[in-house]
Amino acid sequence: MERVIPKNIKNRWDDPKGLIQIFTGPRQVGKTTTALSLMSPQDAIYADADMPTPPTASFITEHWNRARLLPSPQRTLILDEVQKIPRWSEAVKQLWDEDHRNGTALRVCLLGSSALLIEKGLAESLTGRFEVSYFPHWTYGECHKCFGATLAEYADIGGYPKCYDLRGDHERLEAYLRDSILEPTLGRDVLALHSVDKPALLRQLFWYVSRLPAQIISYEKILGHLQGKGNSATLVHYGELLAAAFLLVPLGKFSRRPHRTKRTIPKWIIANPGLVAAAVKHGDEQGFVFENLVGSHLLNVLFGQKEYQLQFWREEPSEIDFILVRDNEPIAAFEVKSGRMKRKPTMQALQASGITCPLRVISRENAEDFLQTSTIAEVLQQGAQTP
After folding, report:
1. How many CB atoms lie within 10 A of CB 234?
2. Is-contact 355 385, C-beta < 8 A?
3. Which one of 15, 108, 214, 221 has the lowest number of neighbouring Cβ atoms within 10 Å?
């Protein structure tokens, strides 16, 4: 089972150049499998911090010392879900710097499924000591190549590899997604590691939005449908936590004034098609499901490339489903022909708003090719271009 992306993992692993290797991305997308496949078992120590009760920093020290004693010059330490350990980055910095002072050769690989906590630790303690490899959700192209998935299957099952072993049993498949993906992500990665005053409200937010793929819905409107007290500022914070856990992404409306983008009503994209509520996938909202499929693919391609942002644009009576932005400058617009009734974009409306980038059209006829792209350059070549 081989992932199409990230493509540079093997080169970085074989030639670490004295850098800690960081693998980050959602649960169950291949981070651990990749790390274990790159090492020889006799040369490495593997330890998983994903426990009901988070271990202390001594967990890191204990396994680090065991790895130091390995006789192989290729000695390796892999720490999985390292962000679960309080003050993990400080412990890693201390031990890593000790090895460098003492001339101890030890390859270190840290794996994590919480973008917020991994990035915080890297910024606070490990500056200049690491390089990051990003593992997004599996794309349609990867699932088609590895599992023979059809586009219809991918739209229904999504990008979790294990799901394709269960594709003939929807009851087991739904139980796996709920019990092995969602509950660990919500319970261990979000609620147990972040300050969440209203856990029930956060869970309700996810489940409510999973029924609104690719829809533009305000926090205030969502709040009116949830049980329990809260305010829109609380939901904004919870939306950010769910995005950091790679579950859903609230896209902002494009504006050349960034402060306005942050304050707009978001368009909600479910990061993995398998997490779109089953009632929606098999109901009357197929147009939104297809649009979400395109949006989630664009997010996958952009994963880890922070100079790019995915946004949308709407000015009555026109709408553009997705705008690809680099350094606050639009470089491509994507109109998704999903079959649902919506406002039609016009080049005149785009240009009047200062958007002069090419407009590409993604329809069900060319979706197969579009969803098999794996780089930004490939994405920009796909779709009919409107002059």
Report:
1. 18
2. no
3. 15
State the pLDDT at residue 5.
Answer: 47
Residue 308: φ, ψ to 5°: -105, 150
Three-point CA angle 149, 111, 153, nearest 5°: 10
| 123 HSE (CA, 13 A, CB side) | 6
> CA-to-CA distance for 230 and 174, rounded, in angstroms?
30
**DSSP structural state of residue 248:** E
Indicate whether 283 belongs to any domain: yes
Cβ(102)–Cβ(67) below 8 Å: no
Establish if 295 belongs to a structural domain: yes
For the record, the structure tokens of 36 come out as 């274990």
Same domain? 245 vs 382: yes
In angstroms, how far is CA 146 from the centroid of its own chain? 20
Residue ending a domain, among 134, 162, 186, is 134
Residue 3 falls within a domain, yes or no? no
**228: which DSSP letter?**
S
275 inside domain: yes
pTM above 0.70, yes or no: yes
User: What does the pLDDT look like over 327-354, one tens digit per residue?
Assistant: 889 999 999 987 666 666 666 777 777 7
Cα 190 to Cα 237, 243, 271, distances in angstroms: 12, 10, 16
Report, as an integer, the average pLDDT of 161-190: 89
Final residue of a domain: which of 87, 107, 134?
A: 134
3 state DSSP class of 33: helix
Q: Is 121 exposed, middle or buried (0-12, 13-18, 19+ CB in 10 A)?
A: buried
Locate 198 and state its tokens. 């209203």
243: its two tokens? 């995005």
Q: Is residue 256 located within the same domain as residue 375?
A: yes
Pairing of strands 248-251, 318-326: unpaired
Instruction: Provide the number of structural domains found in the chain.
Output: 2
Mean predicted confidence (pLDDT) in 137-162: 93
- Say how many CA atoms lie within 13 Å of 361 toward its Cβ: 14
Residue 91 has pLDDT above 80, yes or no: yes
Highest mean pLDDT among 8-17, 199-208, 255-264: 199-208
Sign of CA dihedral 63, 67, 70, 74: positive
Q: What angle do CA 23, 27, 149 make, to 5 degrees?
A: 105
Domain housing 168: 140-386
